[in-house]
Design brief:
mainly alpha
Length: 120
Amino acid sequence: MTTLVVLSVVDILLLIAGLAFYLYVVGTQLMRIAVNLEECAEIVHRIEANAQPILGGLEHINRTGGVVAGALPLLYGMAEGIVAGATYQPSTTARPPAAPASGHRRSRLHDTVGYEPVGG
């Protein structure tokens, strides 16, 4: 019976040691997460401080955008009226194809490099 008591005590000690190790690992990971969250909070506060001067201009931009959005149906209707009156109508008479240039055309590329063809 003493062997059973000793093994039970050893088993309980190993269980407590395992739980202590587990809690240590979890605690270190939670500390690392806390540090990262603090850094993120600082970054968010900096972004918020940088965004404060923009808010007034943003309200003006939203107001102007609302005016433009309200005018879009009118502008769209006017544009359709302009396009309907300016639609291209091709002519019904066909033009003959362009005639080729008559005679021999001399290239000016030779003049740029100083070349004079023989007999030319």
